[in-house]
Amino acid sequence: MKIIRFILIVVLTGYLLFSISNLLGINDENAPIAVQPRASKDYIKVSSILQNKCVDCHSPGMTRMPIYSELPIAKRLMDNDIRQGSERFTLGPKIYSGEEAFTPLMLARLEHVISNNKMPPAKYLAMHWNGSLSADEKQTILTWIANERSQHPWSNESAENYKGEAIQPLPLSVELNPKKVALGNQLFHDTLLSGDNTLSCASCHALNKGGTDQAQVSIGIRDQQGPINSPTVYNAMYNLAQFWDGRAKDLQAQAAGPVANPIEMGADWDKVITKLNQVSDYTSAFSKLYPEQGLTQTTVTDAIAVFEESLITPNSRFDQYLRGNETALNHDEKAGYVLFKNNCTSCHFGPALGGLSYEKMGVKEDYFAMRGGDLTEVDNGRFNVTKNETDRHAFKVPVLRNVELTYPYFHDGAVNELSEAVRIMGVTQLGKRFSEDDIHKMVSFLKTLTGNYNGISLFILKQ
Ligand code: HEC
Ligand code: HEC
Ligand code: HEC
To answer: Could you tell me which residue, 306 or 27, shows the higher pLDDT?
Structure first.
């Protein structure tokens, strides 16, 4: 106990001395970095706020050294803050100067901490009384975030007053070579891609089942049970990488995987190419569309990837709302959207409401202890790719478009009900226990995300 009290005193005195030194302007050697002329006028203010109130923990190497920082225990605590803080949100000199733009992910995280009063952390403010953000400063940052978003092409189709939102409507169409799309469509549905001609990509990613198989885990060739839930192929082009752990860098690299996976399609690419070469439709299509290469693994996976890029599901009721139709959502759905924005968009943002970052499953509470059962290899998530301990149990945030149809939920498919998935997210990701009413509203909102494929509602496609 004595030791703990001693540490507390050292740290608190440190913060106190640091605050005084700040008030007295002792840290002059770290004069703010000037903002480049081409950055917006508002950014001058934002940059100055960040340089004054966030630099200590979010800019490794730029921290204004507090007097106590050389004391071993305090130094360790401070180093921890800097490591954890900058892992999630790094502000380098080029960000402060406006030379480098904030990514949509940085904007989403910044908005979340500002609107929830999470930063600077309470323990820092306890002694660093001039460190908190004033209402004016918060507003300046939030207005700037909305303005940044409105410049992004994702917001092109949003109504004027919704251009600053964390979520944007899906485009009504994308420009692709229609012949490649048609060829990819045929391949996607062709069982010749599997070892015993029983499975196609569509077996596990049915376009009339929200782009999934609606099973807890996928069943592969010869009825083998896979280890993980099949994610949707709709809007997968918005993912920063493919698979729950992001091990494939893009759709083309991804498409090579399942064919050769012994418990998925269980085939051999050479044999698949031989089989496809016996189909004259294919040989003629490939020689027209890929005259130089012809029919190869590379061109087959390219055609499939082009087809997958066409799998967008625009014009959901929520998108109609973002485009300016205020009556597209009812009262509960709008209330659900407000709750969602306040709680969920630091991870589920962008046109597909996810797919743009890796996040730990269980930020606040241990999901796996709650779930029970043994931990499996796939539960490690992104760790399996990077071997970084901080990536253990981190997953690519799933997209939430058409989420009403993509049950069961989570990488392990452990949850059948959308309301249960939302409840668990509150507990594991936010440390919050939402009321039944709030959950109901968020679920109502999530159900407005069901869109159209080729002009037909996915919901009708289902029947
Ligand atoms: C005393 C150190 C400290 C200061 C000062 C500080 N932060 Fe942080 N920040 C952290 C730590 C530690 C984390 C990671 C753990 C967490 O999220 O609480 C973090 C996380 C964040 C995140 C990521 C949140 C997420 O989604 O995980 C953002 C954004 C952020 N801080 C913004 C700011 C801003 C803006 C300021 C200035 C107004 C600021 N921080 C000041 C320590 C600090
Ligand atoms: C036996 C079932 C099965 C078959 C057949 C199958 N998949 Fe998958 N697919 C899955 C599973 C399960 C995952 C998740 C695996 C993981 O993340 O480790 C997945 C992941 C994906 C993803 C990544 C989506 C995301 O959000 O990360 C895409 C894209 C995809 N599959 C496309 C295809 C294509 C194209 C084919 C045919 C060449 C195919 N799949 C065949 C089950 C299957
Ligand atoms: C800190 C990041 C984070 C926050 C905040 C967050 N989520 Fe998630 N969400 C995730 C991750 C990561 C997964 C995948 C977890 C897994 O599969 O194990 C996920 C999965 C989901 C799923 C299941 C999707 C599927 O296809 O399996 C739903 C639904 C969902 N989140 C809704 C929400 C809602 C609603 C909120 C706000 C109340 C929220 N999330 C807040 C990161 C987050």
So the answer is: 306
Structure tokens belonging to residue 176:
């692709």
Closest CA to 302 of 454, 171, 183: 183
For ligand 2, residues with CB inside 6 Å are 188, 193, 199, 201, 203-205, 218, 220, 226, 228, 230-231, 233, 236, 239, 242-244, 251, 254-255, 258-259, 264-265, 304, 308
Give me the residue label for tokens 């609606």.
214
In whole angstroms, how far apart are CA 50 and each of 24, 155, 411? 19, 26, 36
Instruction: At 364, list the tokens.
Output: 């606040």
Identity of residue 383: F
Please indicate whether residue 119 or residue 6 has the higher confidence score (pLDDT): 119
Going by C-beta distance under 8 Å and a sequence separation of 6 or more, which residues neighbour residue 367?
361, 393, 424, 428
Residue nearest to atom 33 of ligand 1 (CA): 119
How big is the chain by its Cα radius of gyration, in Å? 25
User: What is the predicted pLDDT for the residue at 28?
Assistant: 36
**pLDDT per residue as tens digits for the range 195-225:** 999 999 999 999 999 999 999 999 998 999 9
Ligand nearest to the CA of 446: 3
C-beta of residue 64 within 8 angstroms of C-beta of residue 55:
yes
Q: Is the CB of 207 under 6 A from ligand 3?
A: no
183, 279 contact by CB (below 8 A)? no
User: What's the rounded Cα separation, in Å, for the pair 298 and 105?
Assistant: 32
Ligand 1 centroid – CA 121 distance (Å): 7
Q: How far is CA 46 from the centre of its chain?
A: 25
The whole-angstrom separation of Cα 33 and Cα 44 is: 10
Question: How far apart are alpha carbons 152 and 419 in whole angstroms?
Answer: 32
**Closest ligand 1 atom, CA of 50?**
37
Residue owning tokens 């936010």? 430
Ligand 2 probe mutation, 198, 201, 348, most atoms within 8 A of CB: 201
CA of 239 relative to ligand 3 center, distance in Å: 15
